[in-house]
Amino acid sequence: MNSIARESLLYDLYGSLLTDKKRSVMECYHEDDMSLGEIADDMGISRAAVYDSLKSAEAQLELYEEKLGLLAKYEKASILADEADSIISSLESKTSTADKTAHNAESSMDKNDAESAREARSQSGAGAEQTKRLREIIAQLASND
């Protein structure tokens, strides 16, 4: 992740812990895309004071992250959710292929073999239900960031 995106995420997580002045400088610089000079003119302070305030705020956000680790936890959860989603997609693909194979086999079997194939297909349907529920859980996890 690039440093601008990281600072933005850290600000989202911990920005309310900053002083009003530091929060204002961070918002102007990162959210409003203002230059240091523009911020200085707008706030009636020197460019150096804006720079110092910005660097101090960024250091404070990094300190909060070092102590609390919310961004690291978010990144880990995001990676796990992506991995789970990939596994589910793979399982769905395999289930779909197995269903098609079972259906084709049923049409060329005798009555007993066809019943066994239907039972196997029924069990793969249960796996599809579990997959569906897992997708719902992942969506809920993703919406709670």
Note down, in words, how this protein is organized.
- This protein has 145 residues and is mostly helical.
- It has 2 domains: 3-68, Winged helix-like DNA-binding domain superfamily/Winged helix DNA-binding domain (Arc Repressor Mutant, subunit A); 71-143.
- The chain has 6 helices and no strands.
- The chain has helices at residues 3-14, 20-31, 36-43, 47-68, 70-107, 111-143.
- The protein starts with a helix and ends with a helix.
**How many helical elements?**
6
End-to-end gap? 17 Å
| Overall pLDDT confidence | 82
- What is the domain tally? 2
Helix content, binned percent: over 70%
Strand content: under 5%
- Secondary-structure element sequence? HHHHHH
Q: Got a strand count?
A: 0
Biggest sheet statistics? none
* Low-confidence sequence ranges: none
CA radius of gyration is 27 Å
Structural class: mainly alpha
Shape: rod-shaped
Topology of this protein?
Layout: H1 3-14, H2 20-31, H3 36-43, H4 47-68, H5 70-107, H6 111-143
Helix pairs in contact: 1-4, 2-4, 3-4, 5-6
Provide keyphrases for this structure.
mainly alpha; Arc Repressor Mutant, subunit A; 145 residues; rod-shaped; 2 domains
Question: TL;DR of this structure?
Answer:
With about 140 residues, the chain is an all-alpha fold. The chain has 6 helices and no strands.
